[in-house]
Design brief:
It contains no helices and six strands. By secondary structure, it is an all-beta fold. It has a four-stranded antiparallel beta sheet, with no helix packed on it. The protein has a two-stranded antiparallel ribbon with strand order 1-4. A hairpin with a 4-residue loop joins strand 5 and strand 6. The chain is elongated, with a radius of gyration of 13 Å.
């Protein structure tokens, strides 16, 4: 949650449970401003993006063999 109007203090945390393929990449998109960020790592660890402005966000998750979902 953003603490004041126009601030960039929001955050999102996502955790992925690995099945057979443990490596994941994440693309975070602010659908309001068009800003995006990419991160990657091993599943079962929560991933957090900080310093977010208010808005709607989508997260595209891709596993190590290229399967993708958007949340």
């Amino acid at each position: 949650s953003v603490t004041c109007s126009g601030g960039n203090t929001g955050s999102i945390m996502i955790s992925v449970t690995a099945h057979a393929v443990p490596n994941y990449s994440f693309i975070w998109n602010n659908t309001t401003t068009g800003a995006s960020m990419t991160s990657s790592g091993i599943a079962n660890n929560p991933f957090t993006i900080l310093g977010l402005a208010a808005g709607n966000y989508t997260i595209t998750i891709t596993n190590g063999v290229g399967c993708t979902t958007v949340v």
